[in-house]
Amino acid sequence: RTLKTEGTQLPIQYKFPENFWWGSATSATQIEGAANVGGKGKNIWDYWYEKEPNRFFENVGPETTSDFYHRYKEDIRLMKETGHNTFRFSISWSRLIPGGRGEINQEAVQFYNNVIDELIQNGIEPFVNLFHFDMPLELQYEGGWEKREVTDLYENYAKEAFRLFGDRVKKWFTFNEPVVPVEGGYLYDFHYPNVVDFKRAAQVAYHTMIAHAKAVRSFRQSNTGGKIGIILNLTPSYPRSRHPADLKASHIADLFFNRSFLDPAVLGEYPRDLIEILSEHGILPVTQPGDSELLQAGKIDLLGVNYYQPRRVKAKEHLPNPYGPFMPDWFFDSYEMPGRKMNPYRGWEIYEKGIYDIMMNLKKNYGNIESFISENGMGVQNEERFIRDGEVQDDYRIEFVREHLKWLHKAIADGCNAKGYHLWTFMDNWSWTNAYKNRYGLFRVDLGTLKRTPKKSARWMKEVARNNGF
Ligand code: BGP
């Protein structure tokens, strides 16, 4: 059962279904660089960094990142060598349509055409996401997702993407982790525009799903074929105990952080309980006639699941200040389970069985929707300390992936409809306000020369993909 070096045949203990999707995920702002090149407009990250560079780890911003814009050919060759048959990237809205509305930027069309064609020529299917936290700056000035009009502009952008690339792209995603800009930008102050206001957060969340549904509708009208979905970070919510107060706390955390997007995306409607809580506190978002039908029509074909860590909660110990601002955490406290396993190099809990629980929940309560793991990975600080003979000896990452894959394998054996596994991520990249603090790649990126060097995990992933298991 031990790992042998490249080339040796491994005993196959965990065999995955035929045509399983092996690959990795990325996003435009995190890998492209060329932030001011090729006619790209500014998005909120370019702007926020200019304004408050000290909010970013070591003051590093998104101008260069991994320079995929100029190095995509080399990267795609490395993906092929690593056994990828699929790869997710996102289109930058502000690159394709600078300013968010109006003219298409032909240099961007050329770039994304090149990437798509290069992937296909190398036997790698492109999975394309339309929005990964990167609102065009002009539209944020106009109110961003708080404004209903932005959902029409997003629909138009999506339509253009289907028209331009839909002949070759057959897996589309409307949003990546839509709850994150809501939490970060409107509740907990870790994304621009740094608002802390639940009512506005609820409106942003709601409009994101309206935008999603409009894009799904347009995709189906476009008749380009293929599937459309959304990518959600599902953090299973585990109660401290079976005590009713703990169970209730975990139920509410699940409503706010998972089901607020999962239910409308897969079932086409919001959970009753969530609507009740919001209406009780007078913070329901503004809706329009016809929205229910729109959301119903926006049900997805395919769900991407990002899974990093669980959420552990317990009943509130102290009642919240009734005059303070409404926050989801009025209903639960987080809980540090004794003995939980931690990633010592990033500070997140590692709970591999979470993947299985998510998949079984999808099977039981969400019609066994077709899904795949669209992100899972292990971030490590100061990873250079593990370099030996020029290679990062990331056995911890190999173990992390292997243990998660075992649970995914079991979920498939138990009937869940999972079609693939994408690692976060292909090469070390720039990660929002954390910049390069946590390294996640199969390839190490030297921040001076931008040279890519395979880590030990890259060799391992290659064997897993080649054997379709391990
Ligand atoms: C996910 C995001 C990714 C990436 C990852 C790692 O939630 O979809 O974009 O940022 O988290 O995050 P971090 O670098 O903060 O550890």
TrEMBL record:
Gene Ontology biological process terms in this record: carbohydrate catabolic process
GO cellular component: cytosol
Cited Gene3D superfamilies: Glycosidases (3.20.20.80)
Pfam families in the cross-refs: Glyco_hydro_1
GO molecular function, one term: beta-glucosidase activity
Keywords for this protein: Glycosidase, Hydrolase
Residues forming the catalytic site: 375
SUPFAM superfamilies cross-referenced by the UniProt entry: (Trans)glycosidases
PROSITE patterns in UniProt: GLYCOSYL_HYDROL_F1_1
Family, as annotated: Belongs to the glycosyl hydrolase 1 family.
Name under which the protein is recorded: Glycoside hydrolase family 1 protein
